[in-house]
Specification:
By secondary structure, the protein is of the alpha/beta class. It has helices spanning about 5-15, 45-55, 65-75, 90-95, 95-105, 105-115, 135-140, 150-155, 160-170, 210; strands at about 15-20, 20-25, 30, 60, 120-125, 130, 175, 185, 190, 195, 240, 260, 275, 290. The protein has 10 helices and 14 strands.
């Protein structure tokens, strides 16, 4: 999210060195969980660092919802608008990136072209990486992890299966709340759905407060009776690492379950930037490394 100084500090702490314009490590490679852009003060710096690593072969990346949103924001819909409408809310969310593009001619085209190369998920066999939710049925439906220009149009059009699929992978699983139950989110929007702990099997005995993710103390302790459904993530499956959820500062930096790991601790809102080791037994720093 545009915090290049935190990224440099974290890479240095992990033993990466900048050589020939790219951060590299003799034994390690990095995987970024997306959302390089928007919000922060040094978006160009983050794009330069990560693209340099990817091109040098010292990093890989999956798409975040902010890269997906950017593609839609700048792609005409053929009807005089854009795939992601230029509302006040959407423009505000994208404002820092728009300012960077305006100050740097050619940067927008380079960035958008590069974003198309980001897969929606990575399955490494021994581990899996996705921005928000691992959904086997969604991945099977899409078939390919890469978006084409035509695929972007489908994924940005509400009502299509592609829209629901990409929304799940990049933004999380939402469950409808019982009738007349609503809440107001951090941006002041009244919501009728919550993002759920998608790795847990749906259970009507679980309360709304126990189901919502990230945790929210304002949620009621009433059963989550919902028409929504989703697949649980079995404890026997490989570890899945994801970001997206803006975990609060007081959330412990630890796996949520032994094979469910979130690394988003609100680095774009004053929290730490966090890395997880896919080989924790040999990581001298420990399972997690963070910088504030």
């Amino acid at each position: 999210h545009g915090y290049a100084n935190k990224l440099r500090q974290l890479l240095n702490r992990l033993g990466y060195e900048e050589v020939g314009g790219a951060y590299t490590h003799p034994e390690r490679s990095a995987i970024f969980v997306g959302d390089l852009i928007d919000r922060g003060p040094a978006i160009g710096g983050v794009l330069e660092i990560v693209s340099g690593m990817v091109h040098a072969g010292s990093a890989r990346i999956v798409m975040g919802n902010h890269e997906f949103n950017a593609l839609g924001f700048h792609t005409p819909d053929g009807a005089g608008g854009y795939l992601r409408s230029h509302t006040e809310k959407n423009c505000g969310q994208h404002a820092a990136t728009l300012q960077y593009f305006e100050r740097n001619p050619g940067a927008k085209d380079r960035a958008l072209t590069w974003f198309y190369s980001f897969p929606l998920w990575l399955d490494l066999g021994f581990a899996r990486v996705v921005h928000a939710t691992w959904s086997a049925s969604t991945i099977k439906f899409l078939g390919t992890p890469y978006l084409s220009p035509r695929g972007l149009v489908l994924a940005a059009t509400k009502g299509t299966q592609e829209y629901e699929a990409v929304d799940t992978l990049l933004k999380g699983v939402e469950a409808e709340l019982p009738d007349r139950t609503t809440f107001t989110d951090k941006d002041g929007n009244v919501r009728h759905e919550i993002r759920v702990r998608w790795w847990l099997k749906p259970d009507p005995k679980r309360t709304i407060a126990e189901s919502v993710f990230p945790p929210d103390p304002t949620m009621p302790e009433t059963p989550l009776v919902t028409t929504s459904s989703w697949q649980a993530y079995s404890p026997e499956l490989p570890p899945v690492i994801f970001g997206h959820y803006w975990l609060p500062a007081n959330w412990p930096i630890a796996p949520i379950t032994p094979n469910v790991i979130c690394v988003d601790f609100s680095a774009g809102k004053g929290g730490p930037l966090v890395a997880y080791s896919l080989d924790p037994e040999s990581a001298t720093e420990g399972e997690f490394t963070s910088v504030s």
